[in-house]
Amino acid sequence: MLICGRNEKIDEPCALLLGGFDGLHVGHETLLSRARETGLPVGITAITNLKAGGDLFTLAERKHVFQKEGVSFVVELPFEEIKDISAAQFLADLFANVRAEAVFCGADFRFGKDAAGSAEFLRQNAPCPVEICPIQMRGGKKVSITEVKEFLGKGDLPAVNSLLSGGYFVQGVVEHGRQVGRTYGFPTANVSFSAEKYLLREGVYRGYVETGGKTYSSIVNVGARPTFGVEQKKIEAYLHRFDGDLYGKIIRIYPTDFVRPIVKFASVEELKSQLKKDLETL
Fold it and tell me: Which residues of the chain are under the pLDDT cut of 50?
């Protein structure tokens, strides 16, 4: 799948989804479905570095999400580059580069400087038909990435994953850590948490890891490792029944259920005993 800068040309006719698209939630399903019905390749915009506190997904992670949904290309729109562009100029620049024959957006879509552009403004000024899809509601609330982040902050991954297409995950390259876990029978794959990514609640989670086309049940630690005096926040996963070398490989870690908070154990033996109990939750 192609990732394009905002000034790169897409000459092939396409159906274009407009929005920030920090991942895909259930409210986006109608947009995707309607775009697919055109029979055209589907493109999507992705505004990066938009929200204080970080994005839900990095651009590389979004690429994985979009690709699974059959999206052909992504137009990356760094917020700092577009925040002072007028709504009219934003559309002029976009459609000068993307040959859209149909456009889809949500009723709450806003764009341009001071969010002055609306979905109706888009419909009046786009060079092709625009379909405005209604806002999706659940439990009396608008389905949104903001709501997803609220659940992440609480560690409520079942609620998060009920709203996200494909579920929440962290993608990264496995790094060489201190290799302490292997000394007591629990080697872990360590991945740095991107500075641009929104932090979920620190703690120990049940989950799974995707790597090399396979899936492994996992215990996932999000945050510091106080038993060893390490305050740096990372995400690490113990892959149950995995045997191999993951260093330098890209993995995706999917925490699914909060198990317990992170605590400082008095000894490695106490930690090892707790990890055995954590494994029983898999």
Answer: 181, 183-184
